[in-house]
Amino acid sequence: MQNPGLLITAVLAATLGINSIAYAESSYQFKINGLSGPLYDNVAIYLQKYSDADNMPGVRFQATVEQEVHTAMQALGYYDNQVTVTHNAAQPRLLQVNVKTGEPVRIAKSDIELSGDATTDADFKALLAAQAPKQGQILHHGAYDGFKSALKSLAMRKGYFDADFELARLEVAPELKQAFVHVHFNAGKRYKFGAVSFSGNQIDEPRLQSLVPFAENEYYLASELGEFNQALAATGWFSSILVEADTSEMQDFTLPINVALEPERRNIIETGIGYSTDVKTRLKLNWNKPWLNSAGHSLSSKLALSEIEQSVEAAYKLPLANVATDFYQVQLGFRNRDNQDTKSRESNLVLERHWLLRSDWYRIASVRWLYEDFVQADQNDTISLIMPGLSYSRTKQSGGSMPSSANRLLFGVEVSDESWGSDASFFRLRGRAGWIGSAGNNHRFVTRVDAGAILMESLSQLPPSLRFFAGGDNSIRGYGYETVSPRNSDNELTGGRYMVTSALEYQYRVKGNWWLAAFTDYGSAWDDSPDWVQGVGMGVRWASPVGPVRIDFAWGLDDPGRGFQLHFALGPEL
Cβ distance 266 to 291 under 8 Å? Predict the structure, then answer.
């Protein structure tokens, strides 16, 4: 007797083989003739569902395909068409779809009526001008449905909560090649914001009220609720935020806003490890206290350790009446550096006042006390400086962590004078400009210019932390970190009075979040006359969730530092 197990196995194998052949043969291909553009695309989309359908070839299936083609073309206003579907006996699953289009149906009457408060609303007028079906246009069912959806969506975003269609009807007379559109939309009254109430908050309510971007009895805008939510999140005071309209308490077309909050933890500790070619491996430890009291004061502290630099700093933040944009900050920091021909130990105590101006410029006024004990080349000294400063910056970008467009501007000045107790008198100016642009989805351009100047008689009275050095992954690639600088007679780096660097980079998307880059950098740091140097190279970019990761292979074309450099960095490109 035969082994029953072997017999069952053979039957299963044969069955699976038959099924696999049937599946392979069930895939249809359609060759569409006589169409192009949107008509071709729409028909192709409608027929996609039959590509792997388990249908037997034959007259019945061909009739089904013909009906699908008619339906796809009617959606775009073509009702009078001749469609034939044929196949070759040798290739029964390759279907020839031949289409001859007739005259399209056009809109003979466009009866659009808008009533309620929306009749004077500029956004509704713009929507009607851009999307409302117009007499003489070819009928497009999707555009008609999209227009109705856009009306409802705009009404909800702008607070017309009672809005509805009094009439929405599309009549088609295919034999006349005519369509009649009737859309009567009554937006009703536009609601206004009511009072904003908070629950679960540990911060004084007046502080929270300053974050509200709208006033009571202003017209409702959904975008302002989103802006409000972001402002609350930006404070760092809360672990949970729920901003919602209280529809159960609506009166006289006003909508109260309830905000449910949960306090953030009193202590947050973060650790991390990173690497860049400038500072090598860096260990980080951050300890933050997001809120210290009901006034919203906060404390943050940072410890960073690397081979060439060790630093610790703490910052105490005191928000003012306008919490989101105005605050005082006191910073205390210590840093030890041992890099190239620089050895320094510096202490900084800074008082800052921060503003966000209506022009979107960010302004910081500061007073800084700097004490630095250093060795720079052949100079060994200790310097104490008191420096008032003022800076303006503005950053705009769109497109996520690796933006498709962005620009950044920064201008700053610090002043020191012996008359108020400093060891030196000078003006120190810094400026930085950057731009990112795109051409389509696969081409990006990045440019940067960084410049600085110190106005004083001799740099000997200035510590190395205020002098200018160039070179490194955010400067002139192709040269080591801070190796572009004036040198003394022993070829030691002394730091410069002036500095200008520039970068021009082209990036091409290879696939997904991966890009290739080609770049050139140019610049110098000098005292009396610049000794310009240039670097060129290629790189790889990865748009990671936390920002661009950059690996650059760069060559310096001029002395000093002629040769190859590998640069690795994580963070914003500007």
Answer: yes
Radius of gyration for the alpha carbons in the chain, expressed in angstroms and rounded: 34
Question: How do 192-199 and 254-263 pair as beta strands?
Answer: parallel
* Low-confidence winner among 256-260, 347-351, 354-358, 365-369 (lowest mean pLDDT): 354-358
Please give the Cα distance from 69 to 548 (Å, whole number): 46
Say if residues 465 and 372 touch (Cβ distance below 8 Å): yes
Give me the mean pLDDT over the 513-533 stretch: 96
Digit-coded pLDDT (tens) for 42-97: 999 998 887 765 666 678 888 889 999 999 999 999 999 999 998 877 777 788 89
CATH of the domain at 468: 2.40.160.50
**Per-residue tokens: 415:** 């002043």
- Quick one: 146 and 52 in the same domain? no
Does residue 284 fall inside a structural domain?
no
Q: Which residues of 19-44 are buried (b: 16+ CB within 10 A; e: fewer)?
A: eeeeeeeeebebebebbeeebeebbe
Name, in order, each residue with C-beta under 8 angstroms of 291's C-beta and a sequence gap of 6 or more.
202, 203, 236, 237, 263, 264, 266, 297, 298
Q: By residue range, what is the domain housing residue 343?
A: 291-570
pTM comes to: 0.77
Looking at the structure, tell me whether residues 432 and 552 fall in a common domain. Answer: yes
Same domain, 215 and 133: no
| Same domain flag for 443 and 549 | yes
Q: Tell me: do 65 and 157 sit in the same domain.
A: no
Spatial strand order in the sheet of 192-199: 192-199, 254-263, 238-245
Task: Examine the fold and report which residue of 263, 282, 313 is the final residue of a domain before the chain moves on.
Answer: 263
Rounded Cα gap, residues 28 and 25, in angstroms:
8
Do 197 and 163 lie in one domain? The reply is no
Q: Given this model, what pLDDT does residue 93 score? A: 78
Q: What's residue 16's pLDDT?
A: 36
pLDDT bin (cut points 50, 70, 90) of residue 350 is: very high
The answer to whether residues 252 and 352 belong to one domain is no
Domains held by the chain: number: 4
Find the CATH number of the domain harbouring 145: 3.10.20.310
What pLDDT was estimated at residue 52? 63
89 and 119 in contact (C-beta within 8 Å)? no
Q: Which residue has the higher pLDDT, 363 or 457?
A: 363
Do 214 and 322 reside in the same domain of the chain?
no
- Rounded CA-CA distance 141/250 in Å is 37
Close Cβ partners of 90 (under 8 Å, ≥ 6 residues apart): none
Could you please report the per-residue DSSP string of 190-236?
PPEEEEEEEES--S-HHHHHTT-SS-TTSBP-HHHHHHHHHHHHHH-
